[in-house]
Amino acid sequence: MERAQNIYPEVIEHLGTGKSVALVTIVEARGSTPQIAGASALFSRRGLLLGTLGGGVVEAEVQKTALACLRKGFSLLHEFRLRGNGTSEEALCGGSLRVLIDAMPSWSLKTFRLLQKSLRLRHPGVLVTRLVVESTGRAAIRRKWRDVREGREGFSRCAGAPTGEELEKALRQGKPMLSGLSRNSGTARRRTVYFLEPLFPLPQLVIVGAGHVGRALAHLGKRLDFEVTVIDDRPEFANPSRFPEADVLVVDEISRAVRNFPVSSDTSMVIVTRGHRHDAEALRACIRSPAAYIGMIGSLRKVALMREEFLKEGWATGAEFDRVHAPIGLRIGSTTVEEIAVSIAAELVLVRSRARQGEPG
């Protein structure tokens, strides 16, 4: 299941500066396009701040329109057709994008903060954007965040608003939906549409071991859209100065910290401690967990010996141990710390992609 990157937490930081910015979101993509519905980007008067709409000519055209909206002070629902004639200056995709350009995203700051709070608590939900669109494309925008715990409440009191079933469908499918675009809502000069954007907490990456490999992997994991937790029993290693990208740092006895971590089906456990004993303790603490991925560093000989011990002691069955990715990482001939981290990160991405497609990891 393909999902666009959630940039709203970063948008909050930029809105707090008081600078004039435009939040641009693809609300509908048809045919061959460089990005999918839900993809967003934030532009200032100087250009792109964060996110992407696919780059190239398309993004340049959208940016030009967004800057015009900023200068004139209005928001816009606009369609871009990607039909080139083969020249280098035109898009060749052949599809079309319907794009929402919000020239006043600070009006939705409270909603974005509610969204951020829910996702930090690992509660998914739907961002509902209500658009009152004039015939010129100018749009009045109002947003609400619907945490999954709130049930079927939405904009249900508004005529033509999405139903609770539609909100649930968007969450279930994990894809944005444009609701009401073809309905006979509003006057000929004005219509109301809703953009339903399901958002989910980032998958968790738990790095057990704050050594060199763990440090390099935390850097990569953050950029690959994981929520990064680092566990180690040494405060001189597991600290913010060594792990500025980590969302959570846990300094505790390793096996206890792993055992107490709330592992779920979107958690990846990477065991890269400083020694065989700590690796074994960490693995024993999570091998029967529902983690999407469990990987452990070590040689083939080490892994074979540990497997024998786990089966002999009854700490795991053969099937349970065989789901552990060990030796960890894709086979890319890695030798340096950075290469090992890349091989692990690549394996994490592969497992995550397979899970989204409903395939076994």
Shape: elongated
Number of domains: 2
Share of helical residues? 25-40%
Strand arrangement across the biggest beta sheet = 3-2-1-5-4-7-6-9-8
Structural class per helix/strand content? alpha/beta
CA-atom Rg in angstroms: 24 Å
Low-confidence sequence ranges: 85-91
Distance between the termini: 14 Å
Mean pLDDT across all residues, rounded? Answer: 88
Question: Major beta sheet, specifics?
Answer: 9 strands, antiparallel
H/E element string?
HEEEHEEHEEHEEEHEEHEHEHHH
Please, could you describe this protein's structure?
This protein has 361 residues and is of the alpha/beta class. The chain folds into 2 domains: 192 residues, no CATH class; 153 residues, Rossmann fold, CATH 3.40.50. 32% of the residues lie in helices and 25% in strands. It has a 9-stranded antiparallel beta sheet, sandwiched between helices. A 5-stranded parallel beta sheet has the order 12-11-10-13-14, with helices on both faces. Helix 1 crosses helix 3 and helix 6 packs parallel to helix 7. The two termini are 14 Å apart. About 2% of the residues have low confidence.
